Amino acid sequence: MTTTRFAPSPTGYIHIGNLRTALFNFLIARKAGGTFILRIDDTDQERSRQEYIDGIMEDLEWLGLTWDRIEYQSKRMERYLEAADKLRDMGRFYEAFETPVELDLKRKKQLNMGKPPVYDRAALALSDDEKARLREERGPGVWRFKLDQHRINWQDGILGEISIDAASVSDPVLIRADGQMLYTLASVVDDTEMGVTHVVRGSDHVTNTATQIQIIEALGGTVPGFAHHSLLTGPQGEALSKRLGVLSIRDLRAQGLEPMALLSLMARLGSSQPVEVASSIEELAENFDLSTFGSAPTKFDEKDLLPLTAHILQHRPLADVAEAVAAAGVPEDKAEAFWMVVRDNIATLKDLPGWWQLFRDGAEPLIDEEDRDFIAEAMALLPDGPHDETTWGTWTKAVKEQTGRKGRGLFMPLRKAVTGMDHGPDMSQVLPLMQVIRARG
Ligand code: GLU
Predict the structure, then answer these.
(1) Is the CB of 8 under 6 A from ligand 1?
(2) 152, 292, 360, 401: least CB-packed within 10 angstroms?
């Protein structure tokens, strides 16, 4: 059965880049009728925070990316230690004692000699006595996985045929000197034991994948299908990493962007399929196709979320936004008329209170000097309220007859006087909602 997972580290809130990973894995599972696991990668006890775990769940729920199962790596330590023992027994795990400074020096030397900065495996040559002495002097070492130095190949779901020479990769550290279990091993144990069939993640993980394939094979697990999506850049191709803080899902939500706008954009951006607003997550899942994605960095511009959000709102019935309309202060008997008038004229639901305030309190009239007399004359012709949808027609007809103005010269000054703006919804719909018309004096 198809099983995927989204595996955030709870050291921060999720951002637009993580959303891409979460969404791809979610859609693959949903399309196949499989299982989507939310896995909290919290082996780093110092940096992991409960508030981030709560935040991640809240964000995923807001997006509608619901999970079938949740797993915490911090609760599975025993499994990882068992796997570590197994690797140790096989002679694939060794302790190394170099300090970060020593490692850095080695790397610099290698680079100076034009060699790739790969760990030289000096620790493999240590005798038991030497290890005991080093342990005494420096405390416990790190534990490295001994790669088999042959090529590692896989058919990547996005990148195609990948082949990495293990000799060009350092033996990965799986357990830190302070005993912290690192993601590389924990993730492999989880993916294997939880029956994960597809792993989709950012292309920054390609080298990890090479080493993880060898670890999975050493532990006797089944290698899942791997796919690495490109990383997002800003609209100009600039690195997005520094801005990811402000591109958190909660930030985008606070801006009033619609979840379906985010999902629809991210399900297509960087693929050969056009971006279009989906009506449901099921529809997104049905049409999702990993093979349509390219390997080039994907340009992301958060401004693109605005027209998508506006499009979604234009097609929303009142029932779907009744809460936001009520929260804007609109009384229930005016809600339908209000929503029908403003939904084509808002960027996000955050614009609702402003519109309601305009209708309730009236707008500061916008009257050009040369229109002063005209507006005074027109206002005298405006019938007393309450106004209905026919008021605008009868009123402008009367104004036209009395003043001789027509077309734009007739309508625009009236719109500006009533709404304080030179654009906006159909005036015959606006008038019945206006509780006060300040231009009347
Ligand atoms: N916790 C890892 C990360 O956030 C998960 C990577 C993976 O999907 O394997 O980068």
Answers:
(1) yes
(2) 401
- Residue 169 sits in a domain whose CATH number is 3.90.800.10
Exposed, middle or buried: residue 289 (CB in 10 Å: 0-12, 13-18, 19+)? middle
Whether 275 and 360 share a structural domain: no
| Domain end residue (candidates: 285, 315, 345) | 315
Whole-number Å distance between alpha carbons of 207 and 209: 5
Whether 18 is in the pocket of ligand 1, judged by its Cβ within 6 Å, is no
The Å distance, Cα 238 to ligand 1 centre, comes to 23
Tell me, what DSSP letter sits at residue 434?
-
> Do 282 and 351 sit in the same domain of this protein?
no
Is 162 found in the same domain as 108? yes
Please give the model's pTM, rounded to 2 decimal places: 0.92
> Which residue from 249, 258, 254 is spatially nearest to 279, judged by alpha carbons?
258
The answer to whether 244 touches 251, Cβ cutoff 8 Å, is no
Residues 355-366, mean pLDDT to the nearest whole number: 96
Domain edge (last residue) among 175, 206, 241: 175
Question: Looking at ligand 1, which residue's alpha carbon is closest to its atom 5?
Answer: 7
pLDDT band at 120, cuts 50/70/90?
A: very high
Q: Do 253 and 359 fall into the same domain?
A: no
Q: What is the CA(7)–ligand 1 centre distance, in A?
A: 5
7 shares a domain with 103: no
Q: Is the CB of 9 under 6 A from ligand 1?
A: yes
- Between the CA of 84 and the centroid of ligand 1 the distance, in Å, is 20
9, 44, 199, 226: residue to mutate for ligand 1 pocket, most atoms within 8 A of CB: 9
What percent of the chain is modeled with pLDDT above 90?
97
φ/ψ (deg, to 5) at 162: -120, 135
Same domain flag for 32 and 116: no
